[in-house]
Amino acid sequence: MTIEQRIGIIGGNGWLGSAIASAAVDSGAVDPARLTLSGRSDLSTFPAIPDVHRTNLNAELVERSDVVILSVGPAQFADVRIDAAGKLVVSVMAGITAARITERTGAAEVVRTIPNAAAAVRRSFTPWYATPPVSASNKALVQALFEACGEASEVPEESHIDYCVGMTGSGAAFPALLAEAMIAHAVTHGLPRAFAERAAAGVVAGASQLLARPGADAARIVQEMIDYRGTTAAALLAMRERGFDEAVAAGLAAASAKAAAMSKA
Ligand SMILES: NC(=O)C1=CN([C@@H]2O[C@H](COP(=O)(O)OP(=O)(O)OC[C@H]3O[C@@H](n4cnc5c(N)ncnc54)[C@H](OP(=O)(O)O)[C@@H]3O)[C@@H](O)[C@H]2O)C=CC1
Ligand SMILES: O=C(O)[C@@H]1CCC=N1
């Protein structure tokens, strides 16, 4: 779907805002001439996307946009003063409630999303929640915008977005943590670091494709490996025995708690 509406990204010079802007333009979903990015830094430091309008004035961005994406840090939101009444406002910020966004921007139509770092390679899994006033056509727009960044899926409750800060937002970092732990173990067993790094990245990136297949089921894949009663079963059971599931649960809970704290900072 080509998005006809004009899009503005406040914080469009930042890490995620730049990734969304690039993905939207590269996929053809958004015409760069209808895209505006704002930030406080010197305009020369903004992402170099041809034909995109750059500004240090958020009011100018709002004026030029039908859809305003909020991509500043949660603690920076308190300094964003805009009147976006009548516009669709889409937040990617962790921890900031839709009610607070309406209160501060005047917008009735508010969508909250949590993309992730894989947006940089157009592979983000992005859940989104639309407040009741959001129209069906604006919901379709949000779906198209985040499909340009990977996959997108509507959730029925705002609390699901707060939960997803850990699972889908931060989760994109978890495979790298697994790879790092495997590399450290391999190196202590005498394998060359360069080989270990290549092997771990290859295993994690390659094996993730098993889950990307249509109809793939994580629990079934694990159970099949356990039922095989070979080396993989030994590894999986030892990891579980040492608290793998509890460690993941603690990580997800810590991410949500941090989001709540950051939004109050
Ligand atoms: N990084 C990630 O993987 C994910 C991030 N998020 C959320 O996305 C948001 C952005 O994160 P990220 O891109 O990583 O952070 P960055 O710090 O890279 O980007 C935030 C940008 O906002 C700009 N900014 C701050 N205040 C204002 C303002 N008043 N007006 C205009 N621009 C402003 C900053 O630029 P300048 O200083 O020039 O103004 C900065 O470039 C956060 O709320 C985060 O919770 C959500 C999911 C994943
Ligand atoms: O690390 C962070 O704070 C951001 C928010 C969700 C994922 N990344």
Question: How would you summarize this macromolecular structure in one to three sentences?
Answer:
The chain is of the alpha/beta class. It contains ten helices and eight strands.
| Secondary-structure arrangement, i.e. CATH architecture of the largest domain | 3-Layer(aba) Sandwich
Order of helices and strands: EHEEHEEHEEHEHHHHHH
For the report, how would you describe the main beta sheet? 8 strands, mixed
How many structurally independent domains? 2
Strand content is 5-15%
Radius of gyration: 21 Å
Quaternary status of these chains? single chain
What would you say this structure looks like, in words?
- This protein is an alpha/beta fold.
- The protein has 2 domains: 7-156, Rossmann fold; 172-264, Orthogonal Bundle (ProC C-terminal domain-like fold), CATH 1.10.3730.
- It contains 10 helices and 8 strands.
- Strands 3-2-1-4-5-6-7-8 form an 8-stranded mixed sheet, with helices on both faces.
- Helix 8 crosses helix 9 (231-241).
- The protein is elongated.
- The two termini are 38 Å apart.
- The model has no long low-confidence stretch (mean pLDDT 96).
- Bound molecules: NADPH dihydro-nicotinamide-adenine-dinucleotide phosphate (NDP) and (2S)-3,4-dihydro-2H-pyrrole-2-carboxylic acid (A1CAB).
Kindly list the characteristics that best describe this protein.
single chain; 265 residues; alpha/beta; Rossmann fold; ProC C-terminal domain-like fold; 2 domains; eight-stranded mixed β-sheet; 10 helices; 49% helix; elongated; binds NADPH dihydro-nicotinamide-adenine-dinucleotide phosphate; binds (2S)-3,4-dihydro-2H-pyrrole-2-carboxylic acid; amino-acid biosynthesis; Pyrroline-COOH_reductase; cytoplasm
